[in-house]
Amino acid sequence: MRAKLYSLKKSSFFFKLLAFAFVTFLYCEFLHYYTTIFFCTWPDSSNAAVQGEVVRTMVVADTHLLGSRNGHWFDKLRREWQMHRAFQTAVFLHSPDLVIFLGDLFDEGKWCSTEEFSEYVKRFSTIFALPNATQLIVVAGNHDIGFHYSINPALAGRFEVAFRTASVSAVSVRGVLFVGVNSMAMHGDDCFLCADATKKLKQLHKELQCRQGAGPCDAEAEKFLPADDGHAFSRPVLLQHYPLYRESDKHCDGYDAAPPGSRDLLFRERWECLSQQASQQLLSLLQPQLVLSGHTHHGCTTLHMHPPRVIDANQVLAPDNSFSEDGDALPEDAEYAAAERDYVDRQQAAAAALRGEVDEPLIIPEYSVPSFSWRNKKNPTFAMVSITADSHGVYRCEMPREQTVVLLYCASFCLFLLSFVRRKLWWLAPVYNVIMRRAER
User: Fold this and answer.
1) Cα–Cα distance list, 243 to 249, 345, 382, 395 (Å)
2) What percent of the chain has pLDDT over 90?
3) For residue 364, what are the β-bridge partners?
4) Cα 174 from Cα 258, distance rounded (Å)
5) How is 159-209 classified by DSSP, letter by letter?
6) Distance (Å, whole) CA 126 – CA 53
7) CB neighbour list of residue 30: distance below 8 Å, 6 or more residues apart
8) Dihedral (C-alpha) 181, 187, 192, 196: value to the nearest 10 degrees?
9) Among 194, 322, 408, 416, which is 20 to 30 Å from 214 by CA?
10) What whole-number distance in Å separates Cα of residue 205 and Cα of residue 282?
11) pLDDT classification of 14: cutoffs 50, 70, 90
12) What is d(CA 147, CA 384) in angstroms, rounded to the nearest whole number?
């Protein structure tokens, strides 16, 4: 009878340990994503003078899905699972109308064979699956098709077919115009990719001028802008992989910015950012209300002026949400509120300048979105952007930190081990008592 009771107690003990291990795994690999991403919120775009229908947009950059060459199989499995859970949790909790990927979907797209590229596309579609009602926009990155001088029509063509993109593409969502540009097509050397991009940008500029009433309308010319957007003018949102020209990340701050030691590194034109000439060409032809970019793997907010002029030290836009160094949200202070009001005032002045009411340069904000992968950044994030035809708001949502998950596993293992040792000591207690009684005799 005692043997049966002991056997039942032992079985019950191990069942409890297994249940504890399962609950730990369930929380770390599923529930922790919900408890973290739940607190992200869509920003308010109510500062605009003219309101339209809001397009809630989730922006992801630099997922770098591993291929057959780089990385260990477990590293590949782990990173893809993390990105899958974070992405699906965000889509489930916040229901974006539109999801944008800013390039470098794949880590080895520029090298892989046609068969491996097809497998890449299938994995991407599985990891980042979307509801039918959610629209998707993708722009190419240098890891997807190669840097400018290594691109050939086959590499560019297979990516464009797989993701329905082009060197320059235009998509209208609820009256908001999104223009995607292939950054590697902005070298201006008349290669097959650059020539096509330049032609499309010029045509797009003419159509925007026509809609604005600032230029002639050619009724017989081939139309580039979508025909189902009501033909109303709105400043577009520019999407690209490379950021517009800037000297470095020195002016960038915030919890998701580059590490202090990396911010002073100078950017090389056409490698870490677009050239000055290409940047000014895009700003001049499109005059976007907002620029979204990736590539650097770190967050940054920059103000660009058009026409360009000497920018003072206050060229950095105050972030839409402030964080401490450890990622915790800080209460809004007077300095931050003043910076936000100043930004709103300058945006309204920019809109007035576009309408020709005042002679002031356009102020165009650019948000560089950090990498979505824990392989590239310890605190990966994605952007939640509320956009109308005349305004926008940006919130950077921090995903679960890997070090937090590791600490949870370590703490659970320690508790597991202590429970096991305590159980063993309890089982040895009768033997210990017998030994002590004999020693007393």
Assistant:
1) 11, 25, 16, 18
2) 59
3) 304
4) 34
5) HHHHHT--SEEEEEETTEEEEEE-GGG-S-S--HHHHHHHHHHHHHHHHHH
6) 30
7) 85
8) 40
9) 194
10) 10
11) confident
12) 29
Residue 233 confidence (pLDDT): 82
What's the pLDDT score for residue 49?
40
Measured between alpha carbons, how far is 404 from 402 in angstroms, rounded to an integer? 5
Residue 414 lies in domain:
408-440
Domain presence at residue 332: yes
DSSP string, 20-77: HHHHHHHIIIIIHHHHHHTT--PPP-TT-SS----EEEEEEB---B--SSSS-HHHHH
Cross-strand pairs, 240: 181
Backbone angles phi, psi at 387, to 5 degrees: -130, 135
Distance CA 241, CA 254 (A): 21
Reported as a pLDDT band with limits 50, 70 and 90, residue 325 is: very low
Instruction: Please report whether residue 108 resides in a domain.
Output: yes
Residue 352 lies in a domain: yes
Each residue of 22-66: pLDDT tens digit? 899 999 999 999 999 999 999 986 544 444 589 999 999 999 999
Asked if 67 and 118 count as a contact pair (C-beta separation under 8 A), the reply is: no
